[in-house]
Fold this sequence. Notes:
By secondary structure, the protein is α/β, with parallel strands linked by helices.
Amino acid sequence: xxxxxxxxxxxxxxxxxxxxxxxxxxxxxxxxxxxxxxxxxxxxxxxxxxxxxxxxxxxxxxxxxxxxxxxxxxxxxxxxxxxxxxxxxxxxxxxxxxxxxxxxxxxxxxxxxxxxxxxxxxxxxxxxxxxxxxxxxxxxxxxxxxxxxxxxxxxxxxxxxxxxxxxxxxxxxxxxxxxxxxxxxxxxxxxxxxxxxxxxxxxxxxxxxxxxxxxxxxxxxxxxxxxxxxxxxxxxxxxxxxxxxxxxxxxxxxxxxxxxxxxxxxxxxxxxxxxxxxxxxxxxxxxxxxxxxxxxxxxxxxxxxxxxxxxxxxxxxxxxxxxxxxxxxxxxxxxxxxxxxxxxxxxxxxxxxxxxxxxxxxxxxxxxxxxxxxxxxxxxxxxxxxxxxxxxxxxxxxxx
Length: 400
């Protein structure tokens, strides 16, 4: 993999005609160490955020030992890249064949569920010669509010706390270790999301009268985007720890979390080229079917920076973006603030795309990503106490 100092170095050296993914392994290592050292429990990486083998290897080398996998393909991937990793199959609804392969072939022992039929499926699929498994860790997923988060995950999975007792009691009977898990939604902007969810955990435990060995607070930990600057992550950890300590659980119970965005967002950005300009609209060579799915479909605003050898002194204007495909849905409203003199042929770095940007990319209309290049400068935003980029790292930079 090629290496350069920053986006400008890549643009000058390669003059790329396709989008270039810029990766920062040092940023991923720093994020992993932050969670390992500061979260008051076990942190596992939610692979769906970015399934890059290089990223998984980087996180493993940084000391992250647990991985939240959501499909048998993710199970196989992590087992190949990090053979000794602890894999937790946290998708609440799984194919029986996927459960069986995960358990019998790949050594997976942790499974989530949110219903009695799913529990029966796990028990049946993990039998050996007709004998039920005795080493399962089963995490019952509660449905909690996503009201504090930018993207909801409250509709599809989870059993309401006031209906969870039968599932918890049945899981307790067959589990070696019983857990409760939840997900407050993606990009939680307040630690109150976790306090509210923990209140639901308490209610479910009391109603079921079971001994709980694991409380998994899921993901939702935020990153820093324009218009979405969160409080320090330590404040989230403090709220979670206080709520955990107050739960009626086993004295040896474990606290888990599943960060995805918070571990991967700062890992990657994308260098794109402006192919045309029409007033305040730029046509670029990446878009909704590439790394900018969220910018198009949920109006996510990413930091942008003009990458040009000669500094621009023009005022900033609010631009929207069209992607390269023939589809009218390939549109990113923004606003994205860039210098008013930007023109066709200029390059723009779009930051904080390590989470979901790479994972959602397709080859629709024949438009695909170009090279992946390692860069050594800092990401365009960070929650991990780093100094932002020096003037020569990015000629123009706008972050709101």
